[in-house]
């Protein structure tokens, strides 16, 4: 093959692949899936060879030569290219924009120093080949059944592992993994978790259990060098377990035999910018393509997965009880804030419960999904409030840093000494964030060890891990935190959870808000009572401060009744014609003025209006987004719906082609299966 044409996907917004001539040495024979260095405009970039042919439609004199092919790296397997191809088509993005970001940056450099070094390093890494795990606890009957079902599944087998909080789902995954590793001498397993701060816990578990097996981890906070090494270990089939966050779904895993998605309901499986993919959905597709089992685990499954389990499309595996003997689900109690008026954000009843835990040396957790000191400051004399100048949002008070900060555009300013409009010096914080609750707690319980965990307190790399370690060691009496503390953690000494301000989400316009709120509250409640009740210790309880104790969502929470709640929500969705009974895509536009954004969406709507009726597609009216302005741009959205996914896909394909031809200066993007409406 002295002369050939390489068809190459490049990371550009252009919907095209590019032809290059190859006349390199015989020894460097390129293959589909190889990375290649090519000139592109004034730069040299790395792309992926997606096809090789003898001729090109590009005129001979316009064809450029590919500069190098990275033959030292095994080509990306066809199944990986198919995955990237599917994601590109489904989410309506160019192939290169999907495929290349899935490859570590160090592989996309014009030199191969980093690559060669990583290959050498991995070649020297000796790993045991002993998949026999150590120290596996004895499973209870339900766990054993689930582990056997997963470990023994053949072909495409989607399963929902529905197990109450603390039911030992992790143990089920580990033992199912052990079965697969033992049966498949080269097999690889992909385990996805929603957040980086959950990986160290599980990583430690996996390493301890499978000392003879190479584990690779993939998440966004790895340094480039490490990412390269881990990615390569997966790509070369050396790493037999790959643990990662959503981006790991795009890892190259030539011997993939099982996919596990822990906390599958978690919103962080959805990427919210660029390629707006759902790692969970791609995982199910990948399992289908490879004809392998995939297990989705949760105590509060997403309605999509629940719906599939109810209809029999997914096999449901159930764990009804907590794994640790005598550990029971906490008693959930509603505290009516109309009767027990909170002082400093906390009711008498919750304060008393906190005091009791302190006396007994047990841990408590307060959950408030709002960071900062106060969400806004205001002037009581003239009504001024701390609006962000660039966003439809308030500037949040961060008292310790003497700053107001917008959580959307990061604008910062010093706390004004007096009101900018009337000069009044008495500016008041309104409402409460985690910092303010922390301050109050220190005042009420001066002897207690109090720790706050939120995005502000854990900015420094590694600090989240340190904080969680402190809690696990038992060096914290009261933990206060945002959703960061709600998920997955196995806090062994916790017997009280206080939920501070959940009501606002009850009245959101987003139909998914109640699903999300319920899952979040069930999850945070599930952090309590995970070990046997200590002799003379308190029974674990969850106190929910609310003004709406009659609300059915809270009723279901008190009864720990996910089934009925999910059933009712699904019935509502069915009646209203909403997902999962309907498929959606959201076109968003942003411009310095709202009218421009709306105008673009209107034009986008008009260009397809006539074609939609026959296909059963509904194009709604463009509307401003609920948070209209962010960083000086106004944002609007247009929702497209159809009861048929293929019909919607066909429509989107045609529509996107027309929109690209419009060459509008308005910035726009499409999200398929949007989660925030
Ligand atoms: N068979 C078992 N015997 C004894 N303890 C067990 C068993 N299986 C699991 N455990 C323990 O039960 C606790 C809870 O397990 P795990 O964290 O896996 O629960 P989970 O189902 O993932 O809960 P969540 O949904 O709340 O994250 C852990 O401390 C674990 O070590
Ligand atoms: Zn702002």
Automatic annotation (TrEMBL):
InterPro entries: DEAD/DEAH_box_helicase_dom, Helicase_ATP-bd, Helicase_C-like, P-loop_NTPase, PriA, PriA_3primeBD, PriA_3primeBD_sf, PriA_C. Zn(2+) 2 binds at residues 388, 391, 406, 409. One of its GO terms (molecular function) is ATP binding. GO terms for cellular component: primosome complex. Binds 2 zinc ions per subunit. PROSITE patterns: HELICASE_ATP_BIND_1. GO terms for biological process: DNA recombination; DNA replication initiation; DNA replication, synthesis of primer; double-strand break repair. Keywords: ATP-binding, DNA replication, DNA-binding, Helicase, Hydrolase, Isomerase, Metal-binding, Nucleotide-binding, Primosome, Zinc. The keyword Transcription regulation does not apply. It catalyses: ATP + H2O = ADP + phosphate + H(+); Couples ATP hydrolysis with the unwinding of duplex DNA by translocating in the 3'-5' direction. Its cofactor is Zn(2+). It is an enzyme of class 5 (isomerase). Residues 150-319 form the Helicase ATP-binding domain. Zn(2+) 1 binds at residues 379, 382, 419, 422. Its EC number is 5.6.2.4. Component of the replication restart primosome. Belongs to the helicase family. PriA subfamily. Initiates the restart of stalled replication forks, which reloads the replicative helicase on sites other than the origin of replication. Recognizes and binds to abandoned replication forks and remodels them to uncover a helicase loading site. Promotes assembly of the primosome at these replication forks. This is Replication restart protein PriA. The lineage of its organism: Bacteria, Pseudomonadati, Pseudomonadota, Betaproteobacteria, Burkholderiales.
